[in-house]
């Protein structure tokens, strides 16, 4: 087994989206090579209703999937095809936009005013960019959770982990999407398929993600290599981008650590990106925009 070195740690940056929602973006609208098949990751945890209630009114998507994971509050969703619903705490919506939807996403805080959650965008390969739109709405109780003896807890949204399979299926990039909690002071290792892009996004506590496999014989359960102990803690709103290898290791800090661990198979195709529409060529983008103007963007049936 080889530990994936940490390639880079990225602090999510404040930005404004939708009709004026203040959120933090870890990556998006930049070079996609390092995160392929993932395009964007937004952290919309927010405590001030005035900063999120305007929401994300009607907008189109084509050529991608959007994955929304709500921790607190609710997101009401409606689209041009007549789909509608509300996501609550612990729920996930995996939307395959395919050839196109127009939708709105309107956040509503919990009684304390908290609206917490994340949105990830995954790319679709050229063969599926114009596929029929599909929703997988998963309510919290249907997301399996595995708990280990030391209190380590993993919610399996997509992919397989410790013998459990997440409810989201049939996704092109064959992604794994896990919500992981490691108790204070524990060191844990998580397998990640060698051929995938992988990142962790820390949203509670802090910890140290190991930088590389130690020289043979150095690492035992009781001895920590000095470079690991000396490394800085990675905390809230940090995205850890991993290099290649087949596992990631983290040692939780004094307050434990909670993070999303996400991986997927790179698509390795050209990316032509215009806002919420992501295709392979400029010509496909032009067609999408012309269809939006002509009112033919949504293709039923
Ligand atoms: Co959207």
Largest sheet: 8 strands, antiparallel
CATH superfamily: Jelly Rolls
Structural class: mainly beta
Q: How many beta-strand segments?
A: 23
In short:
This protein is mostly beta strands and 301 residues long.
Describe this structure in words.
- The protein has 301 residues and is mainly beta.
- It has one domain (6-294): Jelly Rolls.
- 6% of the residues lie in helices and 47% in strands.
- Strands 1, 13, 14, 17, 18, 19, 20 and 21 form an eight-stranded antiparallel sheet that branches.
- β2 and β3 (21-27) form a beta hairpin.
- The radius of gyration is 19 Å and the shape is globular.
- Bound molecules: cobalt (II) ion.
- Cobalt (II) ion binds at residues 56, 59, 61, 66, 103, 105, 276.
Features of this protein?
mainly beta; 7-stranded antiparallel sheet; binds cobalt (II) ion; 8-stranded antiparallel sheet; 2 helices; 301 residues; Jelly Rolls
List the helices and strands and how they pair.
Layout: E1 6-11, E2 13-17, E3 21-27, E4 38-43, E5 56-61, E6 64-72, E7 74-79, E8 84-87, E9 92-96, E10 101-108, E11 116-123, E12 134-138, E13 145-147, E14 153-158, E15 160-161, E16 164-165, E17 176-182, E18 187-191, E19 197-209, H1 226-230, E20 238-242, E21 247-264, E22 272-274, E23 277-279, H2 282-294
Antiparallel strand pairs: 1-20, 2-3, 3-4, 4-11, 5-10, 6-9, 6-11, 7-8, 7-10, 9-12, 13-14, 14-17, 15-16, 17-21, 18-21, 19-20, 19-21, 22-23
The structure holds cobalt (II) ion (CO).
Residues 56, 59, 61, 66, 103, 105, 276 line the site of cobalt (II) ion (CO).
């Amino acid at each position: 087994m080889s530990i994936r070195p940490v390639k880079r740690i990225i602090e999510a940056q404040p930005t404004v989206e939708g009709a004026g929602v203040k959120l933090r973006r870890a990556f998006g609208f930049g070079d996609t090579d390092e995160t392929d098949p993932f395009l964007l990751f937004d952290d919309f945890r927010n405590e001030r209703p005035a900063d999120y209630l305007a929401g994300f009114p009607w907008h189109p998507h084509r050529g991608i999937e959007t994955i929304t994971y709500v921790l607190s509050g609710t997101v009401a969703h409606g689209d041009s095809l007549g789909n509608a619903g509300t996501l609550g705490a612990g729920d996930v919506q995996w939307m395959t936009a395919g050839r196109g939807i127009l939708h709105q996403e309107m956040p509503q805080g919990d009684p304390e005013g908290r609206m917490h959650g994340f949105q990830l965008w995954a790319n679709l390969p050229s063969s599926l960019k114009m596929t029929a739109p599909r929703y997988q709405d998963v309510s919290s109780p249907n997301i399996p959770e595995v708990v280990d003896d030391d209190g380590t807890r993993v919610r399996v949204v997509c992919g397989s982990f410790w013998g459990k399979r997440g409810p989201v299926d049939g996704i092109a990039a064959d992604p794994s999407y896990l919500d992981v909690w490691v108790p204070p002071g524990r060191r844990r290792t998580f397998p990640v398929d060698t051929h995938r892009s992988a990142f962790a996004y820390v949203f509670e506590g802090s910890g140290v993600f190991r930088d590389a496999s130690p020289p043979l014989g150095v690492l035992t359960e009781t001895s920590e290599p000095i470079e690991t102990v000396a490394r800085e803690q990675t905390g809230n709103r940090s995205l850890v981008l991993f290099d290649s290898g087949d596992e990631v290791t983290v040692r939780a800090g004094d307050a434990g650590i909670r993070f999303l661990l996400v991986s997927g198979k790179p698509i390795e195709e050209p990316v032509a990106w215009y806002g919420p529409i992501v295709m392979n060529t400029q010509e496909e983008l032009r067609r999408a925009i012309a269809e939006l103007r002509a009112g033919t963007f949504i293709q039923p049936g």
